[in-house]
Amino acid sequence: MAQMIFVNLPVKDLETSKGFFEKLGCAINPQFSDDRTACVVLSDTIFVMLLTEPRFKDFTEKDIADASKTTEVILALSADSREKVDELVDAARAAGGFPAGETQDMGFMYGRSFQDPDHHVWEVIWMDPAAVEGES
After folding, report:
1. pLDDT score, position 134
2. Residues whose CB is less than 8 angstroms from the CB of residue 25 and which lie 6 or more positions away in sequence, other chains included
3. Cα gap 56→37, rounded to integer Å
4. DSSP-derived secondary structure letter, 64
5. What pLDDT does residue 133 have?
6. In principle, which of 107, 111, 120, 134 could form an S-S bond with 125, CB 3.0–4.6 Å?
7. Coil, helix or strand at residue 95
């Protein structure tokens, strides 16, 4: 079985956050969702658990960071092409996301970012397969 990752994120409004990710083409897995939690499927091995802040608090004794004022994590996703980077970031912005940083274009690597409705920072990156393999 492939290793999977479940990223847990606190959200202020579960329905708004679910709607945002659905507009990006993500599915919500109802098996792991309820009125306080939504399981967003990014791929066969990557899931984002959106947890209302009170539910998120059940898992930690620490304060929940206010992502509109501080950054605790930057979530990075790969894309198959520069065009796919642009498509996802443009869709996120159109779905109610916020800007986050400048476009990074290093030739062999291209990336853009956005903030979701709760201001979590997401980067979308394409890397030239030849550069990944160490070819030039």
Report:
1. 65
2. 91
3. 9
4. P
5. 72
6. 111
7. coil
Which pair of tokens denotes residue 117? Answer: 């409705």
Tens digit of pLDDT per residue, the chain (136 long)?
A: 889 999 999 999 999 999 999 999 999 999 999 999 999 999 999 999 999 999 999 999 999 999 999 998 999 999 999 999 999 999 999 999 999 999 999 999 999 999 999 999 999 999 998 887 765 5
Q: Which residues pair with 122 in a beta bridge?
A: 75, 114
- Cα 30–chain centre separation: 19
- For the record, the structure tokens of 129 come out as 């397969």
- The amino acid that residue 61 corresponds to is E
Q: Which residues of 95-129 are buried (b: 16+ CB within 10 A; e: fewer)?
A: bebeebeeeeeeeeebbbbbbbbbbbbbbbebeee
In eight-state DSSP terms, residue 136 is -
**Is the C-alpha dihedral spanning 40, 72, 16, 82 positive or negative?**
negative
